[in-house]
Structure formats: C-alpha cells, structure tokens
Specification:
The complex is a heterodimer. By secondary structure, chain A is α/β, with parallel strands linked by helices. Chain A contains 13 helices and 12 strands. Chain A has a 7-stranded mixed beta sheet with strand order 2-8-7-6-5-3-4, with helices on both faces. The chains are: A alpha/beta, B alpha/beta.
C-alpha cells in the first residue's frame, strides 16, 4: 500500500488540475497578450483563473499576481516591500522560524543595511505577541510572518501584526506567507489585516511552478524582474497559462476549509493517540497546531533510517522541510528542543485525501521500524 | 584549415625504455575517454601525440576532456595546414588573431623536422614574425619574456601553427601503476584520495558500504555522482556495493560503543581486501588523515592496518582539511560531498570514540562477532555498477 504523508512538501495533483493543464495546452495555448482570437481565448482563461483564485481569498482579481511559486512570491514581497519603503525606515520584523525563502531573503536585506529582527519562539514554535509589539517601532517598514509553520504546523499570530504597526504608528506593510495555510483553513488577507500574501499551487493539489502574490489594492512594491507589461509590470514574462489554469482548477475544487478541518482534526487526534501509545515518541507540534502537520521525534532513532524503512514499505514521510534536504531543522533548533529530539524528527503531513487506513499503515510501520532499527544510546 | 590537438607527454619522457608502453597506454586512455566526443586519429612523433578529429568530432568537448587525462604535461590546439610558406603566414594570421589581439608582446619559434622544406627554422621565424608584425601593428617582439609564443612546426605531412599551450593534468597515465581499490563513503575526503592516486597512474575500482535502512538509495546515488566526477580524471570505475547492515548492527549490539568505529573499519578492510584480490587490485586507498576525527588517530590506524595484508594508501594522511577541500573544489566533488545524507560512517558514530585503542583489546572485543561469517556474507552479497563519466 502506498501511503503519502509528505503533503507539506507537495501534494498529488488532483484530476481537475491535470485536466485543466492539458486543456490549456491543447486549446488555449495562445499568448494572452496577443490581440487575435487565439490570444483572446488565452486571455479569457487567464482572467477567469485569476477570479477563481481571488474568490478563494475573498479578494478582488486585480489583487492577484501570478508568480512561479511560493519562493518567488516571498522574495518579491519582502524585497519589493523593503525597497519600496526604504526611505520611511529600515526595520523589518519577522520570526526565527520562517521558511528559508523568507529567512535567506531577510539575511540578504540585513547585509544591504536593513535592520532585521527575528522574533524568538517558545518550545512549540509560538511567538509571544508582547515581543511583537515591543519589536515594532515607528521605524518599521515591513512585518513578515508565516500563517502556518511548514515543519510543525504552529499557527502564528498574523492578525497581531497590523495592530502592532498601528500601535507603533509605523507605516509598515504586512506580509504573510500563507503557503501552508491556503486551502487548509479560512485564509482572508483582508480579515488578517495583511497587505501582501503568498500562496502556492502545488500545496493544494495543483501543478508545480506556479503561485501567486496577493497585493492589496493601493499597496505598491518594487518589482524584481523587468520586461513586459504582464502582471502590471510587477512580474513580467509571458504567463504560464497551463499552470495558471491548473492552479485555478485546484483552487475551484477546494472543499470548505472549515468543514474539512473537523475531519482532519479527527484523523490527527486518532493518529496522535496511537503514536503516544508507542514508547519514545514525543510530539513536537503544539496541540492547537493546524492538524494537517504533525511533527514528532523518535528518541534514540535518527530520522533517516526510519524514513528509509517506511519508504521501503511504501510509506512516505519526511524529516523536515524538503527545501533543506535533510539538514538539521532550524525550526526545531529555534524551539530549543534537547538533542535527543533534534536527531530524529519526522514530519507527518496530511491532505484532504489522507485516510485512516494510511494512518494505520504508518503506525504499524513505525512500530515495526522501532523493533528493527538499532537505537542510539 | 584543419584544427588538431598536439599533446606533450608528462613525466613519460623520463621513463627510458618503458616510454613506448606508457605512450601506448596514454593513447589507449585518450581513445577511450574521447570515444563519445567523436572519432580521433592518433599518431605519435618525437614525444608529441597528434590527435586529429575526423568528420563530426567535437573539438571543444575533446579539449575539456583532455585537460583531465593524467599523463599529459600540456597540449595545444593547432592549425594543420599545407607546407607552403604563404599558406602558413595567412593561416597564422587568421588562426591566431583572437589570441594575438589579446597580447602585447610575442615571439615566434619554429621547428623543422622535414628537412626538405625550403626554409630553415630561423627564416621561418623571421618571415612569420615580420608578417604578423605588419598585420597586427599593436604587437612588439620580445624574445626573452613574451606574452605569447607562436610556434610553427613543419612536419612530414603538414605544418602546424599553434599559440598558447594549455596545462595538462600531469601525473602518469591511468593504469600504468596497476589497479587499486578506493573505499568511498560519500564524504569530502575519499574522492580526493581517489583522484590523487589515479594521478599517480593507478586504475581505480571503488568499494562502498551500504546499510539500508540506515542509509538510503540517495546515499548510494551520491557515491555514483562522486565517482562519475572522479572518473573524468581516472577513467571508468567499477563500483562494488557491499551490504553492511548486519555487520554494523552486530558491532552495535556486541562491542563496546567507544570501539564501534575501529571495529567497523577493520571489518571494512577485511571485506575490501577480498574484493580487491578478486578484482586483481594490489592496494587499498582511503581518505584518512591523522587526527582529523577521533577515530583517525595513529593508534586507531594501527588497529585498522593490523588486519590488512595489502598496502593501504592514504594520500591525505598529512593534509589539513582546507587543503583537501581545495582539491575537492578543483575536481568538482565538493558540492556533491556536502549533500547531507547519512552514510555508513555516520550511522552509529559513538559520541566519544576511543582515541587510543590497543590491538589486543580490539581483538578481544571482536571475539563477540562472527567475523568470518559476516565478512563472507558481505562479500557474497556485493553487487557492482559501472561508472563512466561520458
């Protein structure tokens, strides 16, 4: 049996997305900027796709800008905002457990003379709101915070960012990396009080290589690439129509996230109750994490042998962020866990297609693996 | 105008009567290495090997490949033209223009092995120099310290015109020193050790220990990638993958934790020796360096060597890590080596390995293991993969 628990890394494309990609390649393959019939057809598909995605965020289509994915959207948002705002201040506030596409971008900005503050987190990866209020001052030009952490599922206090900026009378733009949250919980940029928001297609069963940046109407950022007039010059280049169509199709068929959450919470609670019966397993995710992501540590067993053992049985889990390919997790390190927990983390991430049978296979696999794999002292 | 490659042997020229054998070996290696870049015809005269591309051969690719073949001191690309002074002059102007435009001073050297050619070497030099000075007025002649030497060689069939010489990889032709087995885990050191010994003329086989599920498919793929890179220098390599899970688990279960690495290395040596003997390899190669990690101390190496009946070459033994890293960057293995997959050496690494193990104590502890059975089963379970860069 194949059991896939690495949905935070990527998800299986849904058949609606596959169909939409194929149709776009065979029927609407024109350049949306061309002024003839074939171009018009492609442009119609582009704009209807934009609307479909906008409606999922309860925003207007003009606020959606297509990019190549989460990493590009995060880079564009953070760099674009920092350089747009650089005359108004130089402080940027973020957290210490952001995805590397934010973290590395911030390091780059720090080297360019910006003052970057990465808020510390507790042992569940939570930011203390008081720290946020204290860090944001009138000189702050950008606050960027992920909505759901990709490794442990912790939900971050994004709504507090706007409040922090207002209290400090700062002009800061608020960016939210919602890659792991979009489609899995209600995500509305206006309600969260954010100006910029990153979403990605392949985490919601769409194709890879496409994502979007929400830019609130009236907000200006500097582009990172230059060329044509596409995406209002914020992200020039011929639109990746097949991928955009696939992204929109995946977004259209997303179920109501609130209802889905109840089902996923039930699955998560079932899994956690089974896991806690096994000796030497610690749950690293907080109890109120988004139930799609559960991070555990196997005390005395390194991640890789367990991952390989499970993989041989058709069960796919990961040891952390796919973007860091097996390096020690900076998220878990920031959470100040002791070494025995750092050596053997496993990230188990669900999708709406996860079944209880898959979970049973996983539990059985971990029990068997623990018998076979020699523990470290 | 046809372009060819003129190759100067490295240390080969020193080897007296053996020279012919070495030269043949070098040509055989070049033929094999260049095969997928197209057909080349090789001829030898006066310690120069001429590689002549046939229709459709990719000269640029060949140059990149030749750069990495051991046994070559230097080589040049040359234009092969008709033995007529006018043709020689016009070809020199056309062929060397890109190089001459980038320098300020030059001189011309001529070699005339065809004594029937109407001009002598000094005349060829004078005429060519004068002609180039007229065509490239920015140039000056400097016979002592020129930016560039233009060489005109008049040989049996053609005249060759060449400019700057390209530095070769040096060393001895692969295979001229026999065959040897490199123990490779996936770290930074072993590919460098392999490269260094290949440079001294050793043909390589490689031995890798795999311990699934502690090590993954990716870890073995990483070794393939490393060897593929090394094989650009060493020529094709056969990799032997040894199943090592049970041995490692038995050591873990039955031996003192602080001896894990030493006992493991002794088991690796035992297995490797048998494979090496079967494959007619005369020595083992490892990437150890004294004191680099707790298990690479002199006493630990003594314990490892106690089970070896064949020589163990450790070319990195006296090198600092940054020196090793510099070579691994040069041969493009560094970026592969730092991929973070677990390998056989990191699986059960003890927190505090014993730095001064004694042979008696290690032997005593090994009595808890069925050494012979484990070694035999590991050898019998070994599979092999051919690795070739091109």
């Amino acid at each position: 049996m194949e059991a896939y628990f690495d949905n935070s890394a990527t998800t299986a494309p849904c058949c609606e997305a596959v169909k939409a990609v194929t149709e776009a390649m065979t029927q609407s393959w024109g350049n949306p900027s061309s002024l003839h019939a074939i171009g018009n057809r492609a442009n119609a598909l582009l704009e209807s796709s934009r609307s479909d995605i906008a409606s999922r965020l309860s925003c207007s289509p003009e606020e959606i800008f297509f990019t190549s994915g989460g990493t590009e959207s995060n880079n564009l948002a953070v760099m674009g905002a920092a350089y747009q705002m650089r005359r108004m201040g130089r402080r940027i506030v973020s957290t210490s457990i952001e995805h590397s596409s934010i973290d590395d971008t911030l390091n780059r900005l720090e080297a360019d003379g910006f003052e970057v503050i990465k808020l510390r987190v507790d042992s569940y990866g939570r930011v203390n709101e008081k720290d946020l209020y204290a860090a944001v001052n009138s000189n702050t030009i950008l606050i960027t915070m992920m909505l759901v952490n990709n490794e442990i599922g912790t939900i971050m206090p994004v709504q507090a960012a706007k409040r922090a900026a207002m209290m400090a009378r700062s002009p800061a733009l608020i960016h939210c990396d919602a890659v792991q949250a979009f489609g899995k919980m209600p995500v509305k940029p206006a309600a969260l009080g954010v100006d910029l928001m990153t979403i990605s297609s392949h985490k919601i069963h769409g194709p890879k290589g496409i994502g979007a940046l929400y830019i609130r109407k009236g907000v200006k950022i500097k582009p990172r690439t230059f060329g044509g007039e596409q995406e209002k010059k914020i992200r020039p280049g011929t639109e990746a129509m097949p991928l955009i169509a696939g992204f929109a199709a995946a977004a259209r068929v997303l179920p109501d996230p609130q209802k889905e959450l109840e089902h996923i919470t039930m699955l998560r609670d079932y899994m956690v109750s089974k896991l806690t019966e096994i000796d030497g397993i610690v749950i690293n995710s907080p109890p109120d994490a988004l139930p799609y992501v559960t991070n555990i540590s196997l005390i005395g067993i390194k991640s890789e042998p367990m991952l390989n053992f499970l993989s041989d049985r058709g069960i796919c889990v990961s040891s952390g962020s796919a973007c860091s390919k097996g390096k020690k997790s900076h998220v878990l390190m920031q959470m100040n866990l002791d070494r025995s927990r750092l050596d053997g983390p496993l990230r188990i991430s669900f999708s709406r297609f996860t079944t209880i049978q898959e979970i049973d296979a996983l539990i059985l696999g971990i029990i068997e693996g623990k018998k076979v794999i020699r523990a470290l002292k | 105008m046809k372009e060819i490659i003129l190759i100067k042997n490295g240390e080969l020229a020193l080897k007296g009567l053996n020279r012919r054998t070495f030269e043949d070996m070098l040509i055989k290696n070049m033929k094999r290495r260049l095969a997928s870049a197209g057909n080349f015809k090789f001829t030898v005269s006066q310690s120069t090997i001429v590689a002549e591309p046939e229709e459709g051969a990719d000269l640029e690719d060949a140059v990149e490949r030749i750069r990495k073949i051991f046994g070559i001191a230097g080589f040049s690309r040359a234009a092969a033209v008709e033995k007529d002074m006018d043709v020689i002059l016009r070809s020199a102007e056309e062929y060397l223009a890109p190089q001459l435009l980038g320098v300020r001073t030059f001189k011309v050297e001529a070699k005339r092995s065809d004594k029937k050619f109407p001009l002598g070497s000094p005349e060829i030099c004078r005429e060519t120099g004068g002609y180039l000075l007229r065509k490239f007025p920015h140039l000056e002649v400097d016979v002592h310290n020129p930016d560039m030497v233009v060489t005109v060689e008049v040989r049996d069939t053609h005249a060759y015109i060449h400019g700057k010489q390209i530095k070769g990889a040096g060393g001895m032709p692969t295979g001229s020193a026999g065959r040897s087995a490199i123990l490779i885990s996936g770290g930074i050191d072993s590919p460098v050790a392999a490269y260094m010994m290949a440079k001294r003329g050793l043909e390589l086989i490689a031995i890798h220990f795999a311990s699934p599920p502690y090590t993954s498919e990716r870890a073995e793929q990483k070794v393939h990638s490393l060897l593929k890179q090394v094989s650009k220098y060493s020529g094709r390599i056969t990799l032997y993958v040894v199943p090592f899970t049970e041995t490692q688990e038995q050591i873990k279960d039955n031996c003192p934790e602080d001896l894990f690495t030493v006992v493991m290395r002794r088991m690796m040596m035992r297995v490797s020796q048998i494979i090496a003997q079967r494959e007619h390899a005369g020595a083992l190669i490892t990437g150890e360096s004294v004191g680099q990690v707790a298990s690479q101390t002199m006493p630990a190496i003594a314990c490892t060597d106690a089970v070896c009946e064949m020589p163990v070459f450790r070319p990195l033994i006296g090198m600092d890590k940054d020196e090793v890293v510099a070579i691994s960057r040069k041969i493009d293995t560094f970026d592969i080596s730092i991929l973070p997959y677990e390998d056989c050496c990191t699986v059960f690494t003890p927190k505090h390995p014993r730095t001064r193990p004694t042979i008696d104590y290690v032997e005593e502890c090994e009595k808890a293991l069925e050494v012979e059975r484990l070694v035999n089963e590991a050898v019998e379970g070994t599979r092999f993969v051919h690795i070739n860069a091109y």
